[in-house]
Amino acid sequence: MSKHVYSFGGDYTEGDGKMKNILGGKGANLAEMCRTGVPVPPGFTITCQVCNLYFENGNKTPKEVNEQMYAALDKLEETMGKKLGDAANPLLVSVRSGAPFSMPGMMDTILNLGLNDKTVEGMVKKTSNPRFSYDSYRRFIQMFGNVVLDIEKDEFEHLLDAQKKKAKAKVDTDLTADDLKAIIVEYKKLVKKKTGKDFPQEVKAQLEGARDAVFRSWFNDRAKFYRKQNKIADDLGTAVNVQSMVFGNMGDTSATGVGFTRNPATGDNEFYGEFLVNAQGEDVVAGIRTPRAIVQLGDVMPEAYQQLRDITAKLEKHYRDIQDFEFTIEDTKLWMLQTRNGKRTGKAAVKIAVDHCNEGLISKKEAVLRVDPNQLDQLLHPMLDPKALKSLVKLGKGLPASPGAAVGKIVFTADAAVEQATKAPVLLVRKETAPDDIHGMEAAKGILTSRGGMTSHAAVVARGMGTPCVAGAEMVGVDERSKTLTATVDGKKVVLKEGDWLSLDGSTGEIFAGQAQTTEADPSSGELAQFMSWADEFRGNFGVRANADIPRDAKTARKFGAQGIGLCRTEHMFFGEDRLPFVQAMILSENEKDRRKALLKLLPMQRADFAGLFKAMDGFPVVIRTLDPPLHEFVPKREELMVDLAKLPHADAKLKKEMAGRYKMPVGELKKALPALLKRVEELHEFNPMLGHRGCRLGITYPEITEMQARAIFEAAVQVAKKGVKVIPEVMIPLIGSVAELENQKAIVKRVAEEVLEKAGMKKMHYLIGTMIEIPRAALTADKVAQEAEFFSFGTNDLTQTTMGLSRDDYTKFSKDYENRKIFKADPFAVLDQEGVGKLVKLAVDLGRSTRPDLEVGICGEHGGEPSSVEFCYNVGMNYVSCSPFRVPIARLAAAQAALSDGGGEKMRTA
Amino acid sequence: MSKHVYSFGGDYTEGDGKMKNILGGKGANLAEMCRTGVPVPPGFTITCQVCNLYFENGNKTPKEVNEQMYAALDKLEETMGKKLGDAANPLLVSVRSGAPFSMPGMMDTILNLGLNDKTVEGMVKKTSNPRFSYDSYRRFIQMFGNVVLDIEKDEFEHLLDAQKKKAKAKVDTDLTADDLKAIIVEYKKLVKKKTGKDFPQEVKAQLEGARDAVFRSWFNDRAKFYRKQNKIADDLGTAVNVQSMVFGNMGDTSATGVGFTRNPATGDNEFYGEFLVNAQGEDVVAGIRTPRAIVQLGDVMPEAYQQLRDITAKLEKHYRDIQDFEFTIEDTKLWMLQTRNGKRTGKAAVKIAVDHCNEGLISKKEAVLRVDPNQLDQLLHPMLDPKALKSLVKLGKGLPASPGAAVGKIVFTADAAVEQATKAPVLLVRKETAPDDIHGMEAAKGILTSRGGMTSHAAVVARGMGTPCVAGAEMVGVDERSKTLTATVDGKKVVLKEGDWLSLDGSTGEIFAGQAQTTEADPSSGELAQFMSWADEFRGNFGVRANADIPRDAKTARKFGAQGIGLCRTEHMFFGEDRLPFVQAMILSENEKDRRKALLKLLPMQRADFAGLFKAMDGFPVVIRTLDPPLHEFVPKREELMVDLAKLPHADAKLKKEMAGRYKMPVGELKKALPALLKRVEELHEFNPMLGHRGCRLGITYPEITEMQARAIFEAAVQVAKKGVKVIPEVMIPLIGSVAELENQKAIVKRVAEEVLEKAGMKKMHYLIGTMIEIPRAALTADKVAQEAEFFSFGTNDLTQTTMGLSRDDYTKFSKDYENRKIFKADPFAVLDQEGVGKLVKLAVDLGRSTRPDLEVGICGEHGGEPSSVEFCYNVGMNYVSCSPFRVPIARLAAAQAALSDGGGEKMRTA
Hints:
The structure is a homodimer.
Chain A: E1 5-8, H1 20-35, E2 43-46, H2 48-56, H3 63-80, E3 93-98, E4 109-113, H4 119-127, H5 130-147, H6 153-167, H7 177-195, H8 203-217, H9 221-230, E5 239-244, E6 255-260, E7 272-277, H10 281-285, E8 292-293, H11 297-300, H12 302-319, E9 323-330, E10 333-341, H13 346-358, H14 364-370, H15 373-380, E11 383-384, H16 386-389, E12 393-397, E13 399-402, E14 405-411, H17 414-420, E15 426-430, H18 438-443, E16 446-449, H19 457-465, E17 469-471, E18 477-479, E19 484-489, E20 492-497, E21 501-505, E22 510-513, E23 518-519, H20 526-539, E24 543-547, H21 551-559, E25 565-569, H22 571-574, H23 580-588, H24 592-616, E26 621-625, H25 638-647, H26 653-663, H27 670-684, H28 696-701, H29 703-721, E27 728-733, H30 739-760, E28 768-773, H31 776-780, H32 782-788, E29 791-794, H33 796-804, H34 808-811, H35 815-820, H36 837-851, E30 856-859, H37 867-875, E31 880-883, H38 888-900, H39 905-910
Parallel strand pairs in A: 14-15, 15-16, 16-17, 24-25, 24-31, 25-26, 26-27, 27-28, 28-29, 29-30, 30-31
Antiparallel strand pairs in A: 1-2, 2-5, 3-4, 3-5, 6-7, 6-9, 7-8, 9-10, 11-23, 12-22, 13-17, 14-21, 18-19, 19-20, 21-22
Helix pairs in contact in A: 4-5, 5-7, 6-7, 13-14, 13-15, 13-20, 14-20, 15-38, 20-38, 21-24, 23-24, 24-29, 25-27, 29-30, 30-32, 32-36, 37-38
C-alpha cells in the first residue's frame, strides 16, 4: 500500500525537504524545518498524488487515504495532548494547499478547523478569551462556508458589516464577544439558507470537506491561469497540509508576521518583513490592516524577535538562499509556519546572488544560475526621467513594491486593463488586488494600490511578473465604481479619470499625474556589472549581438554588452522624413535611369548612417541587410487613395487641401495625379505581402537598389576605416529561397565591394556576404545555399510565419481561441517553436556546416532575446544570437546558463 | 589526341546511330543510314564537343580540329571525285547544325558552300545550267552574308525585290541567269559596304567561317529559349555536319521533299509528306511555295518514289519508330538527307505505339514508354461542339496541322499574344510563323497561318507544344500591319480585327468567326482505351484519383479512369448563388446560436452534393475537405465597400439602387447598414490571407461549421449506402500545422460520425479522418501528426507557397525577372520543386509512416497531374495522386512509366 500521509513536528517527522514532488513545497519545507530543529506546529501532509487520486476517483478521496489520515491525526493528537472535537481540550488545525511549485494565494486555505458549538466553549474556558474564541469560530464558519460550501464571501461580509453598524464598531476589533456570538448565529442561518443543511458540527466531516475543497481548488480558474502563465503541468497536483493551529490573535503577547531574510526588492542584506500584534496571518497578507516593519518587533517582543533572527539566519544558511518565512507568536512562544526560497525582483536576485557568492555561501556558477534571465528585464527598463518630472504633478508616494518606471493610461478593473491595453499602455489602479485580477495585472504596464504592504498580493505578484508596482499609497483615494483616483496636492483636490495619464516609479514609490519621460538604465556598474562579468566567463565564445538600425541604438547596444550588430534593417532609414520622398520617387520611376537618379540621392544618407554604425561597433561585425519590405509599404495606402478618389468630385476646398497635403501635390493636380498614383499603387498591391515581391526578390528585379546599398556600405566602411576604426561589414541578403537568388545578389555586392575597396586601396578589408534564413526552402537546401553564403542568420520571425503558415498580424485575431484550447505550448512569436521551426533551424545549421564547416551562424529574429530560445540556439551550435539592445544582458545570461548545462553546442560550434 | 571529326558516306563511315552525344542527332543518323546502305551524300561530322572547345577557346576552333577537318575533306574530295574550290570540278557542301536533341530550325545552316566567282563558272560548265548555278551562288552569298557576316536578311531581300521589279518578274523562278548575275553584283556590294571586306572567295575561309557560325548559333536567343522550354542543358553543344551538296533544283528531273513514314497528326499508317519539283529543301519547309502531297511523287518520278518507299520502310523497321525524313532527287538520283524519329501529336503517338506493338515491332512496355504523358493532353481536350457551330460563320478550312479545338481572341504578333494572353485566351494569326515567334506560339491557345504546309514551322512547332493549329489556310487573308483577317463568305467580305473571337479545329482544319462551344473528349474507346489499359497493367496498385467538387465532375473523372476523389473542396459549394446568402448570414452572425441557424440551412444542400459524389464514386474513396478559405472571401470586398460608402452621401438614385442591389439591402437602409457591414468586413480583413484565419483554424474558432459539414458528409453516406452503393468517406482537415489542431477537429468529426452511423445502424461503415499536409510544420512534425491522421494528402499548391515563402498570385508580378535570370529550374507551381518542397514531402512521408506504417498517402495539389511530379510521388512511396479529371489519363500514364523505371516507390508503399 502506498504511503499517502506523512507526519511532521514534535519528535516524529517522516518527510524531508527533498520530497517536494510528494509533499509539495510547503509540506517538504515544514518537514525539513522540523528536521533542523525549528519550532513548527506539528501536523501531517497528505501527498500531491492523492490530489490526482481524488479526481480519478470521481472527486472522492479513496478510503485507504482516510485510514492513513486518521492514523496521523491520532499521532498528532497524542503529540499535542489535545483532541479534534474534544469539548474540553479541543485541537484546532489549519488545512492548507501546497503544490510542488509555489502558487501564492491561488488555492484555498481553511483555518481554525475543529471549532463547533461545543469546542468553542471549551476554547473559551481554556483561553479565558471569549472574544478571541468566538472570533475564531466566526472566521472558521466564514472560510468553510466560502471555500467548502461555495457561499459568496460578500454574503458573510454583508452580515459582518450589518453587525458592525449595529454595534457602532469602526473596525473588527471593536466588536465584543457578544457581537461575535450574534454574528455566528447569523452566519449559521446563512449556511442553512444557502445549502439547506446546518453548518457541520461533526469535526471529521469538517476535516474531510476542507481537505477535498483544497484538492478541488487545484482546478479553480485562478490556479489554472497561474499554471498556464508559469508553465506548470496540470497533473502535478497539490498536497494538503493539516497542521495544529497556533494563534497570533490571543492578545498583546501574540503576533503574526511574514518576512524575508534579505530585502526582496533591492536584495540588500537587511532583515525585512512586517508583523501585526494580536492578529492572524491572513491579516498581514490581505493588506486590510497596514502592518508594522518587522524590526520593530524587537521593541515589542525582544526575546521572540532574537529567536526569529537566529532561526531565519540558520534557515538561509541551510537552504543557501534568501528565505521567505511566516511566523506566529502565540502568547510569547514563537512558531515558524513556513519557509521557502523567497521570490525577489531582478535587482534583488542579482544582488543576492553576488552577495551570497562573495559571502562564500554559493559558487560563482551557482550565482549565475540563480537569476532567471527574464528577471534582468526589470533592471534594464528605463526609469522616470527626473528632469521631465518637474512639469508633472506629484500625487504622493506609496510603497516601492516592484521596481521600474511605468507610464500609462489608468484603468480601474482587470477587464478594462485587458481591453484597453491593446490600444495604449495602461496602469491598473485598485484599492487592493485579489487573485482574480491576475489577467489585468498581466496586461498592465504598472500597478498602483492604495492599500496593502510590501507583501500584499499586488506587491508579490507584480514583482513576480517584473511589472512596476507602487502599493499602499494611502494618500490617494481610489473609487473603483466612479472610476476616479483622487489626491490632494497643495490643498487642492486633483481627480484623475479612466484614460488619464499616470506615471509611477516602482523603485521609489512616487506617483505622478501625467505622462512622464523615461531614462535608460545603466548596466555597466554595480552588482549587475559584476554579475554579468561572471556570466560572460561561462558564456565563452558564444556571441551576443544587437539588432540596431541607427547609430544611437548601436551605442546603447554596446553599453549593454553587444559584441556587434546582428541586424541592421536598412529600410528603417528609408522611412525617414527627409528620405521618403526620394524613396517614393524611386518607386514611381518608370525606368531604370530615373530610378538610379533617385537612388543617387539616397546614397549619401545611407552612407552616413552606416558610417555611424561602423564607428559605434569599432572592432565588432556589423550585419547590414539589404532592402527587405515590399515597395508598397513606402507609398500611400491603396484603400485610402481609392476612398479619396471617390470623394474628390464632391470634395470641398478644405478636404481638397487636406488631400493635397496628404499626397504632396498641388490642389489643381489632384484630379489628374491621383488616378495616376492609384494606378502605380494598384500595380504594387499584393494579396499576400509576406509572400510577395520583397527581400532579395526586389534586388533581383531592381539590381540598382542592391548596387546603391552595397556602394553605401563599402564607401562608409572605407571612410570610417581610414580614421583608424576597425570595420567588419557583413552584408546580408534577405528572403533567400534558393542558392540561385543569392548567387545573383552576391555577384552585385561583390562587384561593387571590390570596386570601392580597390579604389580606396583597401582590398584587404575583411567582409562577408551571407544570407538570412527565413524561408523553409532555404533551410531545406542549406547545403546548397552555403555554397554561396559566408554566413547564415536565422530570421525566425518570418521563418515562424512561413513554417507555420501563420501570419503574425492575422494570428492575433484568433490567438485567443488557440490559447484557450492549448493548441500551441507558447506564443510561437515570443518563444521559438523548437518542435517545428527549431527542427528546421537545426537541419539548416547541420546542412550549412556540411558544406562550409566554418560557416558563421546566428539568429536575428526576436527569439534571439528569449532565454529558452537562446538556450536552443546555443545547443544547435550557433555562433551568436542577436536581439534588441535592452535584451542583450538577458541573452548573455541565458547563453551563460546554456553553457553551464551544455547540450553539445560548444562542440558543434568548434567542430 | 581526341577524334574530333568523323567521316561518313561512300564506303568510309566512322560513326553510328548510337553516337548522338558525340555526333548530334543528325550526324549519328547520317552515319547510321550510311551503315544500313541508304544513299546519303557523303561528308563528315565535327563533334558536339568541339562546340564547347570553340567557346572555351575564346570563340575559336582549335588548330587540331582544323587539321582533322581538312583530312576528312581530303577523303570526301576523293570519294566525290571533286575538289572544294576547284574551278573545273567544284565540290559544294552544306554546313548544318545537329545537336544531341532535335531543335528544329533553331540554329543556322549554310548551303552551296564552295561557290565563288570561279567555281560558279565551273558549275555552269558542268551542269550546263547557268540559271541554276547563279541562283545557287546568289543563295549562298545571301545565307553566308546573313549567318556568318551578320547582315540582315531584309537587306538582301530588298535587293532581290528591286531586281524582280526591274525584270518584271513575279516570282523568283521568273528571274533569268543574267538577272541573277546582276543580283550577285549587288549582293557583293552590300557585303563590302556592311563588312568593309570583299565577299570571301577563299573556300577554306568560307568553310571555317560557316562552321564557326553554326557553333555560335548554339547560343542565339531562339536556341536558348527552345532549350529552356525543353529543358535541354546548355553544355551539350551542337555538332556541325559538312556534307556534299545535292540539288533538287536542277530542273524537272530533280525534286526535294520531306516526309513521315506514318501520318504524324493521326498516326494512320500512310506514307505522308510533301515535295516540290525543281526546288531546294528549304523551299518546302519555309512554306513559301505550297508543296504537293508526297504520294503524287509516284506519278512524277515512279522509280525514285518506289526507292524512297523501300528505303523509308526499311528505316522505320531499323529504328523501330516512325521516321521523319528529308530527301532530294538530283537529276533522277535519290539521296536521303536526313532521318530521325518523327515528332507526332498525342493522338498519333498513341496510335503508332499501339500499332507498332500490334505489328510486333515493339513490346507492350516499350509502347507505354513511347508516349510522353503530357502529349495525352491533346487527346483529352474538348472539341468544338458541332451543334453550337451552326450559329457561327465558317470562314474556311486549312490544313489540320495540330489537333484539338481552340477558341480565343485573335492577335497578329507574338508579342501581342504574350501580352493579351494574361487577360483572355488568344489565337495567334500569322501569314506564316518563324522561329522568333516561339514565345507567342507558347502563349496562344491556337495558331492559324494562311501559308505553309503540314510540315511548316507553325505546324511542327504547334504539334510539339500540343497547341491546336490550322496551317496554310489560303482562303483567309492575313494582314499583320493593319491587324485584320479577311475572308469571303457567300460572296461577302468578312473582316475580323484584333480582339475578335475566333474558333478553330486543329483536327479538321476548320475555322469559324465567333466564340464556339466545346465538347468533351472520350477516352473510353479506340486506341487510347487500349493504350491506357496497357499503362494500367504496369501501374499496379498505385492509384489515380481526381479532384472534383460536384457530381458532374465526379462522373467525368470516372470516365477518365479516376479511382476515387482525392479532393472535394466543400467551399466551392458555398459559392453557389442559392447558398451564398446563408453563408453570409452565418458569417455575419454575432453569436453561435445564429450561426447554427444559418448552418442548418446549408446542411441539406451540402448533404445532397456529397450524396451525388458518393453515388458517382461507388466503391471508391471520396476525400472531402472541410471548409478552407478565409471567411472574407464570402463577403463583399472591403475596398469596394469603402469606396461605395465614400460615394453614398452624394450618390444619385441610380447609384443607390445599384448599391442596394450589390449588397442586397433596401435603398433606405444603405446609410445605416453599409457602415455596419463594413465594420464586420474590416474585422475579417487580413494582411496575409494565405497565412490567416482559414483551414482548420476556422473549425477551431467555429466548431459548429466542422460539425455541420461532418453531419452532411455522414448523413449523405448513410443515405446513399442504404441504396446499395459502397461508400468510403475520407474526411480531410486542411491547414494542419500541429497535431493538437487535428486532435481538436478529429474529435468533432468522430463524434458526429459515430452519432449519425449509430442512429442509422451502420456503425461498421469504413471511413477515415486525415489531414492535408500543406504547411511545412505539419511535414516537419509528421510523425506526431500521424498519431491522429489516418491519411495524409499533400496540398502541394499551398505547401509550395509556404515552403518557398512565395504567393502564387503575387509571383506573377515578377516571375518574368525570375525566368529571365533562370532563378528557378521550372515554374514551381506547375512542376513540383523536388529539391526543396519535395524534400519536405519525402521527409513527411517517412516520418508519417514511422508512426503509422499503413498510412495512406496521396497528393491533391495541381502537381498531381504533372508527369515528372507524378513520378516523384511514385518514388517517395505515395499510394495515389489526385488531379483534375482531364489530367487523370496523363497521371495514369506517368505513374505507369514511373513503375517501369521504379525508383523504389513500390517497395516503400508496401513496406
